[in-house]
Amino acid sequence: MSDSDVGPVIGLTTYLEQAQTGVWDVPAAILPRVYFDAITRAGGIAVLLPPQPVSAAIANRVLDGLDALIITGGKDVDPARYGQLRHAHTDDPRPDRDAWEDVLLHQAIARELPFLGICRGAQMLNIALGGSLHQHLPDLIGNTTYQAGNGVFNVVDVAVEPDSTLSTLLGGQTLLPGVPVYHHQAIDRVAEGLRVTATTHAGIVQAIELTTVPFGVAVQWHPEQAPDDLRLFTGLVSAARGYRAAEARASGRALYVEGDATA
């Protein structure tokens, strides 16, 4: 098998939470299986990236081994990062994860590494670039449409901007019915350089794109919860293949072919 036939490596950030398995009840790096199943089904190789001490140098060393990045869902981002006090319904802060994903995103953007944000990942992208959030949507819209609670995903229809990367990934589709959502926060002030590319009928932002990179897409819904629709993941894997090929050309690396001593 040639190097070009092996799927690209996709890094996925993880939670760091108290977790129980067998007799153990300890802090652990975890991620629901549906995330990395979606990547492997789309043709990629999934690598998990747990929160840890970080610097630009550490983040770049990690990104050196990746062809694309996913910032996954999870607990709320610390509102101090966008200059607000914590709302009563906002999760206790996870400063280690916030710092980890912030630096990973900035370094991924600097090297134009393809990335996909999911739920918290979309919010993290917006905050990292200077935007803000609505901390509790029921205060804004008066209901729990976007987060039913108890681990139950609601569904909402999403209008997609026609001339966007997201629309291209969806084959030109501009109305996406019944996407699974589970978020009580949402993007408020949109950071400079980001473009809103999907909203609900109530005007709640459901997708943003970074216009200065070839592939920088983030959605507020949970595409990993729709296993019959892998279009966002196959689009990311395709972009990752292109990134890997371009990096190989730029560095003058020859593709290794198993059994070929001259490669």
Largest sheet: 9 strands, mixed
Which percent range describes the beta-strand content? 25-35%
Q: Per the principal axes of the C-alpha atoms, what is the gross shape?
A: globular
SSE order: EEEHEHEHEHEHEHEEEEEH
Question: What can you tell me about this protein's structure?
Answer:
This protein is of the alpha/beta class. Helices cover 28% and strands 25% of the residues. It contains 7 helices and 13 strands. The strands form 3 sheets. Strands 4-1-5-6-13-12-11-8-9 form a 9-stranded mixed β-sheet, with helices on both faces. The model is unreliable at 254-263 (pLDDT under 50).
Can you describe this structure in just a few lines?
With 263 residues, the protein is of the alpha/beta class.
Features:
nine-stranded mixed β-sheet, two-stranded antiparallel sheet, alpha/beta, 263 residues
SSE topology:
Layout: E1 9-13, E2 15-21, E3 24-30, H1 33-41, E4 45-49, H2 56-63, E5 68-71, H3 95-110, E6 115-118, H4 120-128, E7 133-134, H5 137-141, E8 154-160, H6 165-169, E9 175-181, E10 186-187, E11 194-199, E12 205-210, E13 216-219, H7 231-251
Parallel strand pairs: 1-4, 1-5, 5-6, 6-13
Antiparallel strand pairs: 2-3, 7-10, 8-9, 8-11, 11-12, 12-13
Helix pairs in contact: 2-3
